[in-house]
Every structure is written in C-alpha cells, then in structure tokens.
C-alpha cells in the first residue's frame, strides 16, 4: 500500500494553529513532509497509530509527530483540542525548544496539566487575530517547554497499577469474544470489581466496562475494514445475541452504523 502525503502547511508558512476537526471518520496511513506537528486533545477516544505503534487516545493527552512520520487516526468518540504545525526554522531563537523536539515522545499524558489548555486557547485566538510572528513564536516556545515538562512527568509516573492494567488487557485480549462482564474478569485476575475499576480509572481514565467495550469495538472495526464479512456474520463472531444488538452497540460507541463505518473506512 502506498503511503499518502498530506500537506497541511503551505510552503510560504512556518506556523499554523487550528482546532482539531470534530469528526469520527477514520484516516488512512499518511505522512506530513517538512514540518513538525503537536496535537493536544481535551476530548475524544479511540486509537492513534504512529509508525508501528498504536496508542490509546486518553484525554487530556498530547501527540508529537516529526517530519515524515506515518500516522492515522481511528476515533470512537468525537475529539476536541488543538493542532500546531510548524517548521523547525521558526525556533532559531529558541535553542532549548529545538532540543526538546529531539526528546519528545510520540505520546504524552497531560493529566498533570498545569494550565496548558489555557495557554493553547490564548495561542489559538492570538493566531486567528493575525498577530506578529515573533509574538506567536514566543507562544510556541512556551507550549513546547511546558509540554516537554509534562511529557517527562508522565514518563516518571509508572506505577503498579500500570502493570496490573497491562495484565488486564492481556487477559481481555484472550477472552473478549466470550467474556463481556467486568465481574468475570475481576474473578479471573483475583481482584475485586472495585479494584479492577480503580486500576482502569488510574491507568486510562475509564471504567473496566468501557475498556471491554473499546476492545470489542476495535475488533468490530477490524472486521468491517479488513474482511468481507456481513454485519450478521460479525455479530455472530463477536457473540452478540443478534445483529440488531451489534448495530446498537456499534452506533452507541461511534454514532455510525457498521455499514456507514465500513463505507467511510474503505471509501
């Protein structure tokens, strides 16, 4: 499959600040040439694949893409937030920010947020007002420095809950087709339901039930996108009582019917 190239920053521009598009439509793998991209999400859910790594979208969170990195989105809830596109040359007066770009992870947690979204809101409004580039670059420098600090903080917050959540996802991956109830997973892991929910809430800001639904949704999307199976056949494979219940589940999670999703994903 040929990787598409998207050019969202015109040749004559060195900076662009915009709101995240509030749509669920999945994107095909593509790359952006010649500029860096920072994405800050305050809302949304789903998956973001960067290179060969797939990240859960767990707002508040941030993503960094270097020039030429391949990525694609697959949202299950409508996102909200900000996207900043910029060429490295804009940071020539800010060597510390330039150095931060070499150490930025593709994903960083913003739950330790110390006002980053307030800064982003002002940055966006200032950009839309057509302010001087020197002024805007100062805001970009501030955003990068603060984001870098938050990224380092999130790397240091690895806890035992993170390990237990990883164990839960492994068990879930083996049994999600036949086991759909939180109580059964808690029993399999020798945990109380309360403890399992706390593990999930601490790790990904979701309940265990929501994590189970998300895994079901991922598999449903894969089957709709990569197979010719009918909706009834997919419902059967995922152990829904009938296709209507599967359609209700899918639409509740994505606002789309399975066939609408398939049409957008492969169209």
TrEMBL record:
GO terms for molecular function: DNA-binding transcription factor activity; sequence-specific DNA binding. Transmembrane segments: none annotated. The keyword Transcription regulation applies. Keywords: DNA-binding, Transcription, Transcription regulation. Residues 166-264 form the HTH araC/xylS-type domain. InterPro entries: AraC-bd (IPR003313), Homeodomain-like_sf (IPR009057), HTH_AraC (IPR018060), RmlC-like_jellyroll (IPR014710), RmlC_Cupin_sf (IPR011051). The keyword Transcription regulation applies. Coiled coil: none annotated. PANTHER family: ARAC-FAMILY TRANSCRIPTIONAL REGULATOR (PTHR43280), TRANSCRIPTIONAL REGULATORY PROTEIN (PTHR43280:SF32). This is DNA-binding domain-containing protein, AraC-type. It comes from Echinicola vietnamensis (strain DSM 17526 / LMG 23754 / KMM 6221).
